[in-house]
């Protein structure tokens, strides 16, 4: 174990984690993180008093449950102690999810704003098998057996002990955990499994309920495309449905060459798997727009719906929804600087099979196979896209990549829900925050109905995935400003309770 003040160059920022299935949707996640990093750098440059965080490594057991296994891996963390003025001050723990940890995790975000006001020590831990917290052979299938949320929680418990020893902490130092998306679920589960270590937990957009067939994801996407409060409309959803129906009809008629030309595909989708990849890529643009609405990724809902419904003078009055979808995809490729649309399933599988490229997609896909599912399907009639995006097309990757039989997936997912409590957890002092247009809200906790904690939910009107975790901005929706104030009120209340001042 050691602590280093040297700063390493980072390429992505993890104020927002997410969980997603499609290749294009995963790339939209990476684009969002790059956007967030630029914003954060600008913020840090305009605040010269910002601390230089300390970076370190803690050598964690590969398997906390096997005392005979002496193998370890280096786990990266960051510390920011600039706001920590009292030895009995609180500790704010930022939990990273399915991607690299950035130094900005202790420099930027709503939790950092609160840390400054409450004099908290800021610490952040990278998730095992992501970023730099992995051994050289860690992405090999046989090594991935040590990747799980249970092991990640044990890592956090060991990290708690390490930080406590290093800074001379005691029971007087109140620990509050923060996380978003999968890391939000980890924040809630950490409080549930280690209540003696974590006094309170903030869980943003946290999918605490594992689900194999996550069909309700696209149901919410369709509903959000109709939401007038964010620029949607019934007409928008109707046009989207018509566009996808036209694309499917063209595929049935054998017009793959024309489709590839119209949508700028990298190759012609001839094979059934390639046709599914093609439809998934088209759907991902809409799914990503809803999930990250107003965060700067390609489009927001209002702009997307304007493109899909506009028949003004700027457009051909006779053009169909199919033509407007072509324009949307063309604009998307231009904005993300993509020369063409990837539709090769074989290439996709080869990318996922690579154990030398440190992609976060392979380990995350392994976790979906062994713990969570989360497969965003389109077989339900409420889905506005293509029925070819089905459970089989996604779950078969588990056997192709990791030799995990598909029949075992329901067993693993049932265990996850039994172990953590699903979306009916029996825990106290866990605050669940969700945006009402975020599809992942379907797997979170959105109601107050337990005797243990009857005031645990904040639902934000008009906001999407993990929006509450960002720094306050003047142009944020009023509902988002109110939510952040309420989050801080709850955190302040926990700190006062622990200190015996209330």
Helix-strand blueprint:
Elements: E1 2-4, H1 23-45, E2 54-61, E3 72-80, E4 91-95, H2 110-118, E5 121-125, H3 149-166, E6 175-180, H4 182-193, E7 200-204, E8 211-213, H5 216-225, H6 234-252, H7 256-263, H8 272-291, H9 301-309, H10 321-335, H11 345-353, H12 361-372, E9 373-375, H13 391-402, H14 409-420, E10 430-435, E11 457-460, H15 478-499
Parallel strand pairs: 4-5, 4-6, 6-7, 7-10, 8-9, 10-11
Antiparallel strand pairs: 1-2, 2-3, 3-5
Helix pairs in contact: 1-8, 3-4, 5-8, 6-9, 6-10, 9-10, 12-14
Summary?
The protein is of the alpha/beta class and 502 residues long. 42% of the residues lie in helices and 11% in strands.
C-alpha-based Rg, rounded: 23 Å
- Biggest pleated sheet: 9 strands, mixed
- Kindly, what is the distance between the CA atoms of the first and last residues, rounded to a whole number of angstroms? 39 Å
Q: How many β-strand stretches?
A: 11
Give the mean pLDDT: 89
- Major sheet: arrangement of strands: 1-2-3-5-4-6-7-10-11
Report the sheet-strand fraction. Answer: 5-15%
* Percentage of residues in helical conformation: 40-55%
- H and E order: EHEEEHEHEHEEHHHHHHHHEHHEEH
Structural class: alpha/beta
Number of helices: 15
Which stretches are poorly predicted, pLDDT < 50 over at least 5 residues? Answer: 1-20
Globular, elongated, flat, extended or rod-shaped: what is the shape?
Answer: globular
